[in-house]
Amino acid sequence: MKNLKLHSYWRSSASWRARIALHWKGLPFEYRAVHLLQDGGQQFQPAYRALNPMARLPTLEWTEADGQTRKLSESLAILEYLEERVPSPALLPTDAYLRAKARMLAEMVNSGMQPLQNTSVTLRIKNELKADEKAWAAHWNVHGLTSLEAAVQETAGRYCVGDAVSFADVLLVPQLYGARRFGVDLKPYPTLLRIEAACNELPAFQAAQPDRQPDAQPA
Ligand SMILES: O=C(O)/C=C\C(=O)CC(=O)CC(=O)O
């Protein structure tokens, strides 16, 4: 994989997952900023939609040794692909059950939480339904984090699944940032907070943080 380009937005949690995985695997990439709110949402522009018909972030583009260009969207598909292409350092355990557990915890965020509070959803709740989109988003974060705190008890070591970083941690850290943005009290999730702190000691997690990205906006 050469000439990697990641279409990303600094605080898009799905972009953040891909950034962690790329840094973890030691794959340098060019950062292509797509602003989710400016210009009515740059993700809706035809050039980006041609890359990603869902008009969502992230999208990864690269070139193979034989010159073929490739593109992939959906952060979990990107994580799975990078894990296959660059197995070491790993982001999945070797034991099949624990691998499934890491994917299960990741899916609890990927399918069970984030889509319910995605910007495309919260904007419709606010503008079409005239409802409190922050309360809506906070509700689904509380439901998901309560479930995750319970679920990780079986496998947690230093990280979500034992003492090695996995997809579960890659999904957890950006989601906690989102939960804070929606005003969720995180005190009921001590295990998740402890894992987040452990992850944030790692250079790949540090490099992927929103405020370290070229399109970050001052608070
Ligand atoms: O407010 C903005 O700056 C625009 C959009 C986002 O950050 C995207 C999200 O926070 C959704 C998410 O990835 O969970």
TrEMBL record:
The keyword Isomerase applies. SUPFAM superfamilies: GST C-terminal domain-like, Thioredoxin-like. Keywords: Isomerase. Its EC number is 5.2.1.2. GO terms for molecular function: maleylacetoacetate isomerase activity. Residues 95-218 form the GST C-terminal domain. CDD domains: GST_C_Zeta, GST_N_Zeta. The keyword Chaperone does not apply. It comes from the Bacteria. It is an enzyme of class 5 (isomerase). Residues 2-90 form the GST N-terminal domain. It holds the Pfam family GST_N_3. Belongs to the GST superfamily. Zeta family. This is Maleylacetoacetate isomerase. The gene is maiA.
